[in-house]
Design brief:
six-stranded antiparallel beta sheet; 174 residues; four-stranded mixed beta sheet
């Protein structure tokens, strides 16, 4: 049997099962043109009992734990998360910096596939930026910036459940 087409849009809220009793929520808030036009989500901090009667509006007001890049519809197709609803009026502003590291061996990029003139090192940006900013050394205030890689749904699920992506070779990784 063919699976139905998954349609997602900005404002959608999703749940991720933490265990038999709790879920955590995230909201698809925007797209990042500088990172493959990927979906940007904000993950809410609190674990909520599955039987909770929180409204979508109350969920959207929970404190934010982190922001990340992923492809939301793929997570739905794979059953990693479930859509619980949509909020029409929400603030899509992402108030954080993202960072990425371009260097052989750290994020699995084949050196031969990198353009020879592509400078290695750190890049930082905000969602509203028109280009990445290269920095030779990551400033102290950006060492805790969110990793800007587009993560697969299973890696996002891991961070939601454990607080870490599990990237041992990535500098300053949560």
């Amino acid at each position: 049997m063919k699976k139905p087409i998954v349609r997602t849009k900005k404002g959608d809220i999703f749940s991720v099962n933490i265990d038999d009793q709790f879920v955590k929520y995230f909201q698809y808030v925007t797209n990042d043109l500088l990172q493959l036009n990927s979906d940007v989500i904000r993950v809410f901090l609190e674990k909520v009992p599955k039987e909770s009667d929180l409204s979508l509006g109350e969920i959207a007001k929970l404190p934010v734990e982190f922001y990340a890049h992923t492809i939301v519809s793929v997570g739905v197709k794979l059953g990693v998360w479930n859509k619980v609803g949509h909020i029409k009026d929400f603030d899509p502003y992402v108030p954080v910096f993202f960072r990425t590291w371009l260097e052989r061996g750290l994020i699995g990029i084949d050196e031969k596939k990198i353009h020879p003139r592509q400078p290695r090192g750190w890049y930082i940006w905000r969602i509203e930026d028109s280009e990445l900013t290269r920095v030779a050394q990551l400033p102290e205030e950006h060492k805790k910036a969110e990793i800007g890689t587009v993560f697969n749904p299973f890696t996002i699920e891991k961070r939601i459940k454990t607080g870490t992506y599990g990237l041992q070779n990535y500098p300053y990784s949560p």
